[in-house]
Design a protein that fits this description.
With 426 residues, the protein is α+β, with helices and mostly antiparallel strands. The chain folds into two domains: 109 residues, no CATH class; 212 residues, no CATH class. Helices cover 58% and strands 10% of the residues. The protein contains 20 helices and eleven strands. The strands form three sheets. Strands 1, 2, 3, 4 and 6 form a five-stranded antiparallel beta sheet that branches. It has a four-stranded mixed beta sheet with strand order 5-10-9-7. The protein has a two-stranded antiparallel ribbon with strand order 8-11. Helix 7 packs antiparallel against helix 9. The relative contact order is 0.09. This is Protein kinase domain-containing protein. InterPro entries: ABC1_dom, Kinase-like_dom_sf, Prot_kinase_dom, UbiB, UbiB_bact, UbiB_kinase. Belongs to the protein kinase superfamily. ADCK protein kinase family. Pathway: Cofactor biosynthesis; ubiquinone biosynthesis [regulation].
């Protein structure tokens, strides 16, 4: 009965706002109306341009996860229940009004008893039950889609919901986020261009995360960046190198790099916050993506198809030549663009859509990588429309190539191809 109630509610919302917006706007506004779990699901779907299309995926990326705050009495009760004693036993100062409130948690400024300035993230009461209820409804809708919509079945809607369900469980447990902070800090230890907040494990639990308080300017606040005399090009360079090191050097990357989760300071440091969503790439994944991009830059579309065959994505050898032709239709449109317009994210997005047309299953981590690249490219373009972020990261790409592809240095060749291609475009 609960699922039917949700279904009628969904139909009512769609009926009320139909016709006034594009398909992407309609879906975005519907998800906003349905509440936080559906907003989160929409953000998750934004990685699936292969299913919803680029236009809808771009709209879904605009979904903002904001809610009214819950009471300070509840915050106090949660902290005291988690750590014992009184709030004052753990914090000498605790700001009652949160600085931010979203669907899963809200964040307060505080000072520990030893004088350390911290940010304290507290999980919403009853949010786990709310998520479980709404995710059950998503499973219900996915089941209907698989049963009654033939085209939907090949995308495995239930599996998509299952992936979202699993990622939500990680996001709801702040011990996992603290672990992500800790790992990322280790990965960038000694790198002065990056700052990752330190988690305080003695004041962290499944419901509470305490970390360094950080000061900075949101990377999308260009006026504030200019007023602070911060070099935009330097910031763009640091961001591109940071992303490359996360994804390719370490294989562990921040999976939600929108402008609100990236701060900058007058030292030109990139400060990352909110590690609820992260992605991992195995070395095999990294080599796969690098070799595919290398082949696209060389206009070697047959090799792109052969790589997919060798990886088991193409099962029928006769499809190799047809997939190569499809890749040519993608590559010739994008690779030949000017340096400041060439988008690796769009190239990957269209490639994944082509894979879907050939009934290939794209790994979820590669879809998250594509979404993250799209965010990073967008931020870089806003910082300085004339630059190409991949050119800025070229020395780091070359070094990674030397270390990862042995004597043949195939990836070094890939880096050199990027360099020569960009020089041809400029």
């Amino acid at each position: 009965m609960k699922n039917l109630f949700h279904l009628f509610r969904l139909i009512k919302i769609l009926f009320l706002i139909r016709g006034a917006f594009s398909c992407g706007d309609l879906l975005t506004k519907t998800l906003k109306t349905l509440g936080p779990v559906f907003i989160k699901f929409g953000q998750s779907l934004s990685t699936r341009a292969d299913i919803v299309g680029e236009e809808i995926a771009d709209k879904l990326m605009e979904l903002q996860d904001k809610l009214p705050s819950f009471s300070f009495d509840q915050v106090k009760q949660i902290i005291e229940s988690e750590f014992g004693g009184k709030l004052s036993d753990h914090f000498s100062y605790f700001e009652e009004k949160p600085i931010a409130a979203a669907s899963i948690a809200q964040v307060h400024r505080a000072i520990t008893c030893d004088g350390t300035k911290v940010a304290v993230k507290v999980r919403r009461p009853k949010i786990v039950k709310e998520f479980a209820k709404d995710i059950d409804f998503l499973y219900f809708i996915a089941g209907l889609a698989e049963k009654f919509i033939p085209k939907a079945k090949k995308h495995s809607p239930k599996e998509i919901v299952a992936i979202f369900d699993k990622s939500s469980k990680f996001e709801l447990d702040f011990c996992f986020e603290a672990a992500a902070l800790s790992e990322m800090r280790e990965n960038f230890s000694g790198d002065e261009s990056v700052y990752i907040p330190k988690p305080y494990w003695d004041l962290t639990s499944h419901l509470v995360l305490t970390m360094d308080w950080v000061e900075g300017i949101p990377i999308n606040d260009l006026d504030a960046i200019d007023k602070a005399s911060i070099d935009r090009k330097k910031i763009a360079s640091n961001l591109s190198i940071l992303f490359f090191n996360q994804a390719y050097r370490n294989g562990f990357f921040h999976g939600d790099l929108h402008g609100g989760n990236i701060l900058v300071n007058d030292k030109h440091q990139i400060i990352l916050i909110d590690f609820g969503i992260t992605g991992r790439l195995s070395k095999k994944d990294r080599i796969f993506v690098a070799n595919v991009l290398k082949s696209f830059l060389e206009h070697d579309y047959l090799n792109v198809a052969k790589i997919h065959y060798e990886e088991g994505f193409i099962t029928n050898p006769e499809d190799i030549v047809y997939f190569a032709q499809t890749c040519r239709s993608i590559g010739e449109q994008i690779v030949g663009l000017s340096a400041n317009k060439m988008s690796v994210a769009k190239l990957l997005s269209r490639l994944f859509k082509a894979c879907d047309d050939y009934d290939m299953n794209t790994r979820p981590q590669l879809l998250l990588l594509q979404k993250t690249i799209l965010m990073v490219e967008g931020i870089g373009s806003r910082l300085d429309p004339s630059i190409n972020m991949w050119k800025l990261a070229e020395p780091w790409i070359e070094q990674w190539a030397i270390e990862n592809l042995g004597i043949e240095a195939k990836l070094l060749e890939f880096a050199q191809k990027i360099s020569s291609k960009i020089k041809e475009m400029i």
